[in-house]
Write a structure and sequence with these properties.
Blueprint lengths: L2 H30 L7 H10 L2 E2 L9 E2 L2 E5 L4 H7 L3 E7 L2 E11 L5 H12 L6 E7 L4 E8 L2 E4 L8 E5 L4 E7 L2 E5 L5 E2 L3 H10 L8 E10 L8 E12 L2 E6 L5 E2 L3
Parallel strand pairs: 1-13, 8-13
Antiparallel strand pairs: 2-12, 3-11, 3-14, 4-5, 5-10, 6-7, 7-8, 7-9, 9-10, 13-14, 14-15, 15-16
Length: 260
Amino acid sequence: MDWSKTKTIFIVTFLLLNIFLGYQLYERNKQGEISVLTDPDLQSRLEEEGIEIDIEDAEETVTGAPVTGTSATFDESYLEENLERQTISLLNPTTVFSELDGPFRLVGANLSATVDAFLQQHVILGEEYEIAQYNESENFIGLYQTYNGRKIDEYERENFHLVLHLTEDLEIESYVQTYMEISEQEGREQDLLSPLKAVERLLDGGYLSANAVIEHSELGYYSLIQPDDNFQVFAPVWRIRVDNEDFFVDALNGEIQSIS
């Protein structure tokens, strides 16, 4: 018997086995997203219900506070001087309408990146907006303003802060813009609920069915009050997506928001 060859076979076999077991452990942790530090009672409840958490950093704790937004007024002459290849007009002191001199083509396969390029080139403070909806049937893209990288969302009202009007060929031909000056409420910053704690609130409230899949979590700023013309208060809220349905949990007090 060739012991040298046999030894090599055993080494390779054990190496492949370790790689396989390591991959299995990685996949299990990736799918569960619940670390050994998680409250064992909650982990047990989730396992009993067959609820899968497929989100990253489920136990991440961040700080935040309510913010206030005040409608900004635009200076038409300033916009005309600083924005090229478009004709600017004001629908009212807080709303800009712009018609491009020539259409700006978007790339459907890379929509987000090409929209970002347009915002940087053609929209004042364009880097502060993020896509919220692409409506193919009505040919527009709605965007929300952001604060510290988090969308200032109007829930399902579709009261977008920036609307890009498109042609049938996926080209931007005009846009309507509003902008809010945002300030954080001093002295009210605190640790926010983690996404996992938001999921626990949904579980306690009976919002999660057996075998549900938690697909996505996103922290944003939301207002339940109908918008005032000039001033709004927004609270940090977790948007939790469960089997293609969105739930909203106040990240400060854990209350589940009812969106009509």
